[in-house]
Design a protein that fits this description.
Blueprint: H1 2-21, H2 23-38, H3 44-61, H4 65-71, H5 76-94, H6 102-114, H7 137-145, H8 147-159, H9 164-181, H10 188-197, H11 200-225, H12 230-254, H13 266-278, H14 280-301
Helix pairs in contact: 1-2, 2-9, 3-5, 3-6, 4-5, 5-6, 8-9, 9-12, 11-12, 12-13, 12-14, 13-14
Transmembrane segments: 21-39, 45-62, 78-97, 204-225, 231-249, 261-286
Keywords: Membrane, Transmembrane, Transmembrane helix
């Protein structure tokens, strides 16, 4: 029992260190948790399914089973069950709209089965996303590396159309992922070839169309469910597109072929978040970024 107590104490300290020293992890986790606290679903059992799926995703991606087997030779399955149950319970109880019901309690039996399902040592197959145009190479590369996380995030995003609060909160959560789509720099040769084929304005247009195509189901879903509150949707569209354009134009404003990334930080997130909230400052900054990005690109591609 003492060993189990020490283990969970270690887990708590480990989580605290991750959140404290890695804002790229802590910020999206806090935003997602906040969104899942207030999300309202039409049926109570859907909360249980949603939060069980979160515990399942955690279990599938865990790589510490061999470690647990060595430390807790006979009780490692109990640890797996307790950790999965803790994740499931904390999300379930934190939701302000959830009311205890039988299905939610029965899901603990399903959590027991997780302790008998060991994650595969081989990584899960990922989609190649070949149907995405090469003009959207940042998206294609990002989705190939983060296929399952994207699918899970996109499902949450679709659910966010339920009401105004979930729409805004999940939108803010999405901003962090957008930032990392355009964080890495392509090499000099690729940039030269790319911008000899299309202009920077054409790149912006293609990326904006793709981005809004991804959000289109959310737009439609929100209008269907909340037509009388469509003003929120209009602001949401402006807000999301402003942030998206700020991140995209920033990449090429700062681009240098010796740098592998443009080093997105929490300070940049907050700055662009505020600009996007106010909209007009975002328009001004987008224009400045675009002009400087075009000048920077011309240094590599020429006229």
């Amino acid at each position: 029992m003492h060993k189990i107590y020490k283990h969970f104490q270690f887990r708590f300290n480990q989580s605290f260190r991750i959140f404290n020293f890695n804002p790229k992890v802590s910020l999206p986790v806090i935003l997602v948790f906040g969104a899942l606290m207030i999300i309202k679903l039409p049926q109570s059992f859907l909360y249980s399914l949603l939060y069980f799926s979160i515990a399942l995703v955690f279990h599938i991606n865990r790589k510490d089973i061999p470690f647990l087997k060595k430390i807790f030779v006979k009780n490692w399955r109990l640890i797996v069950f307790l950790e999965s149950s803790f994740i499931y319970t904390i999300f379930l109880m934190a939701n302000i709209n959830y009311k205890t019901e039988k299905f939610g309690i029965l899901m603990f039996l399903a959590l027991i089965t997780l302790s008998f399902l060991e994650p595969k040592s081989k990584p899960f197959p990922t989609f190649q996303w070949n149907f995405i145009s090469n003009h959207l190479f940042e998206w294609k590369s990002y989705l190939r590396k983060n296929t399952w996380m994207f699918i899970f995030t996109y499902l949450i995003l679709l659910l966010s159309a339920y009401n105004q609060a979930s729409l805004i909160l999940c939108g803010v959560f999405l901003l962090d992922y957008l930032s990392h789509v355009y964080e890495n720099n392509e090499n000099k040769e690729m940039l030269e070839v790319y911008f000899k084929k299309i202009s920077f304005k054409e790149k912006i247009q293609k990326n904006v169309v793709f981005f809004n195509a991804l959000l289109l189901p959310v737009y439609i879903g929100y209008l269907v469910l909340n037509f009388n509150e469509s003003l929120y949707l209009l602001y949401y569209i402006f807000f999301m597109n402003c942030y998206f354009l700020l991140i995209l134009t920033r990449k090429y404003r700062l681009y240098h072929h010796h740098e592998k990334a443009n080093y997105f930080s929490i300070a940049v997130f907050i700055e662009y978040f505020v600009y996007s909230m106010l909209i007009i400052p975002a328009f001004i900054m987008i224009r400045i970024n675009t002009k400087e990005a075009q000048q920077n690109i011309s240094n590599y591609v020429g006229n």
